[in-house]
Amino acid sequence: MIPSPRGSAGGGPYVDATPSSRTPQSLEPDDHSTCARASLASIVLMQSSMPRATIPLPGDESPPAMASVVTVVWYILSSIAIGAIVICTIVFAGATGVHFLAAFLVALLNYEMTWYALGIRQKILRPFQLYYEPDALAASRESEVPLPYARVWAPKLRLHPFVFTGLVAALTSALCGGLLLLIQRDGGLGLDPLTFHIMVAYISSTCFVAIAAAMFTPSAMDGAILLLQQAAFSVLTLNTLLDFRAAVNGNIRSIKLIDAGFALSITFVPIVILRIVRSREVARTGVTLMLDLFTLQYVPSLLNVVVSVVQDYLNPDQLDPHEVPNYRLYALVLCYLELWAADLITLIVRQVCPARPPWVAVAASVAGALGTVAIYNAAVVPAAIPCLQKPRHFALAAFSALVYHVGCQFVAVLRFVAVPSTGPVLSSTWLVRLQYLLLFGFCAMLLERFEWPGDYSYTSSDVSGQILRMWQRIDNSSYTAYVDRTAKLDFISRISSLVKIIHIKPDERQLESWSAVKLHQLVSFYGAQVLRNATNAAAT
């Protein structure tokens, strides 16, 4: 008998391959089947049906429960703390304090963006991993979360990760401060003591925060790129501190580095070189470079705009003595309070009413921004600054609330794409709580465009008028009156007087004189004032 060709190649017994049943076989392959590999297009399209890659949809979950009272109180107190820090920095520290605050924000937000980039890479590259490496570990290989280098090296030295990070950051900041001291003393930098102390404090504190953030990034390359972006962002501050003019050997010397925007642009060149040198896959390198470019244009560039606009507000052209003193400071604080109120009310609405329609939070934030403008004009803004009480400020407040929601939805989409379905990569929410600060520069620029249009379009006659006013200002005998007017319109004194009025303690004679007639007169007086202001606003 001739053996069948379907027999075993090793000379084993003949096995007939004729099916024993007429029923069709199942199209679902078992674990031991050897079916053909699926195409890349099918893997990409069917990614949501695969294990460990399911994207949760709003309809797949139960309705969210209302947050607890402790959570709502935490959001309110944290928002008040953030607002107090920003306003105190603007009012007390001025443009220099904003430079420090923005440098810290760049380090924190870039740290969080590195983890977002990791989650996005895992989700985008997962279909390619499943297609090109179809083994048992392919589904979970791209879902592994790496440990930061601080948590890897600290146990080897028997130190806590935070202690190890603090030591490294402190040594690095001390080294940078010492190098600046040597340049000042032996290199002929020539800074005055005040500017030198500010620069030492800025470089040391910025290095400390940036090194601490870089130590907790997903990889060493991410930490190095974070430091590059931090250095590029600091060019604007260094230009501001080094833009002095000193007499050296009979000549006027002024030190200024390259333009801040150009510094952020050329930073992408070393980032590309570093990524290509350490690249292993073309797809991974391309996605990583796109995310690096997005981070560079999103966080440092927008904060660069914030610092530049705030510096223009707080350091205006002093050649025009007819402008109301501290006018720009009041306008800048109002612009920030509009975004802050929209953020606070949106957080409260989302925590108290999680099942509300989306338009409820938008309407509530717009109403909060409008109420903030009304309260700010009634309680803080002096009567000598009537421009902040015009209707256009209410329109700008509503527009700022809408801009805030655009940025909020952008961050929500970013987190949705970045957080993998296997679990959260990052638990911090710095970008969620501080994203409206990135939009602060845009809203302040819009307000400046409406309030001071001459700053954007001027002719040679305007420049000649500024020079003429400068010479008039030098010989102006009413300069003392101008200084007194500045003191009366000081922002801090207005807030102090408001606090004193709130905490006033009347004596018994004052309590007896406060009768119903006095209350009626008080209500009538303020009612007449409100009607007069409304009539004047409508007339203008």
Automatic annotation (TrEMBL):
Region listing for Disordered, in residue ranges: 1-32
Protein name: Transmembrane protein
Residues that span the membrane, as ranges: 72-92, 98-118, 161-183, 195-216, 223-242, 254-277, 329-349, 361-385, 397-418, 430-447
Domain of life the protein comes from: Eukaryota
Alphabetic keyword roster: Membrane, Transmembrane, Transmembrane helix
Coiled coil: none
Taxonomic path: Eukaryota, Sar, Stramenopiles, Oomycota, Saprolegniomycetes
